[in-house]
């Protein structure tokens, strides 16, 4: 990882943009490990850590991601050095939330009304519809994907989150456990250009409520 440099958090945030053109240089196993190390340190509700990741680097497989069937012909995906398939384990999310609540109660880490509130929350999550459980688990997965996107900047890598994909096709292609849901794909690679991209964003006035 010779191209790793320490980058301030705000530099990583401002330096990140969606990269959709990559060089031929592969993304190494060490670089993928570094991304996953960042992902696993993300916060999650009740420390449930419902994220599960599968990295695809095989060229033929990457070609498949670029097809009409899989990504509505986002052809640039074939150029990525890796595609990280970012999944949510919804039943794991419920199970590990319950386990955390139990642990907090048993060890008196949280007491009184706050502990009752946590148990109410876990109870609600446990009996919620599968779609609601997925939404909550996916929120946590999204945070960890953001951690990878920022760590990638430090590694000299570019990323693009891809939300337009055929979940069923990808699960079949990669033999992903039917209990997992795919939250997003993270395309990763060495950026083909080092151009500085302006962020097109709402102003603070538009997002800060008065
Ligand atoms: C949930 C989500 C889904 C996205 N899906 C796609 C996608 O399918 N294809 C794509 O090219 N970009 C996708 N993007 C990238 C956005 O278009 C991009 O983040 C946004 O336009 C802001 O640009 P920036 O990332 O360069 O700052 C997605 C981003 C997010 C967060």
Distance between the termini: 46 Å
Structural category is alpha+beta
Secondary-structure element pattern, one letter each: HHEHHEHHHEHEH
Strand content is 5-15%
Query: Which spans of ≥5 residues are poorly predicted at pLDDT below 50?
Result: none
The CATH superfamily is NADH Oxidase
User: What kind of sheet is the major sheet?
Assistant: 4 strands, antiparallel
CATH topology: NADH Oxidase
Tell me how many strands there are.
Answer: 4
The average pLDDT is 96
Count of helix runs: 9
Brief summary:
Residues 13-190 form the Nitroreductase domain. With 210 residues, this protein is of the alpha+beta class. The chain has nine helices and four strands.
Please, could you describe this protein's structure?
- Keywords: Oxidoreductase.
- Residues 13-190 form the Nitroreductase domain.
- This is Nitroreductase.
- Belongs to the nitroreductase family.
- It is built from 9 helices and 4 strands; from the N terminus they run ααβααβαααβαβα.
- The protein is α+β, with helices and mostly antiparallel strands and 210 residues long.
- The protein has one domain (9-191): NADH Oxidase, CATH 3.40.109.
- A 4-stranded antiparallel sheet has the order 1-2-4-3.
- Helix 1 packs across helix 7 (130-154) and helix 5 packs across helix 7 (130-154).
- It is globular and about 55 Å long.
- Flavin mononucleotide binds at residues 17-18, 20, 74, 160-164, 184, 199.
